[in-house]
């Protein structure tokens, strides 16, 4: 979860590639059918709503509508607000930042709940810049996913932060590149 949202599925120690190597393209699960347009051409994709870019965009849109927030001064201007600033301001209980952060977690829980219901994984490991919020993101996300998933024992599924945090996507790409060479 960074400027975009990607994914991968590992089964029996192997990456599942699927048609066109597109298996695990979770960023384009529809979360909000009438939501904002995604760069893929659809509306309300998980990536559009919950990527770092999407979080910052939603905050900037609300600030542009006249809502007051400490995020403006923290960032040095409403147009400079990032997902990291939203998370920081939410930790400090800024009302708009809390609203954006809670909304992000709700949307992520919808997407992750769908993934869990479809593939019943042993674990979901979240990497990228947004995941570096750690338990500020993971604790409420786990709780919301537990409330949403009812058809399988969700308590047996781990939702974890990648050990490589914000660099996990880069490391994964390097490994795939090495294997292809």
Please give the structural blueprint.
Elements: E1 10-11, E2 14-15, H1 46-50, H2 52-64, H3 71-75, H4 83-91, H5 95-119, E3 123-126, H6 135-148, E4 158-161, H7 168-180
Parallel strand pairs: 3-4
Antiparallel strand pairs: 1-2
Q: How would you describe what is shown here?
A:
- This protein has 181 residues and is mainly alpha-helical.
- Helix content is 46%, strand content 7%.
- The chain has seven helices and four strands; from the N terminus they run ββαααααβαβα.
- The strands form two sheets. Strands 1-2 form a two-stranded antiparallel ribbon.
- The chain is globular.
Task: Give me some keywords for this one.
181 residues; two-stranded antiparallel sheet; two-stranded parallel sheet; 4 strands; 46% helix
Rg (CA only): 17 Å
Number of helices: 7
* Estimated share of beta-strand residues: 5-15%
Mean pLDDT: 93
Sheet with the most strands: spatial strand order: 1-2
Q: How are helices and strands ordered from N to C?
A: EEHHHHHEHEH
**Distance, first to last CA:** 27 Å
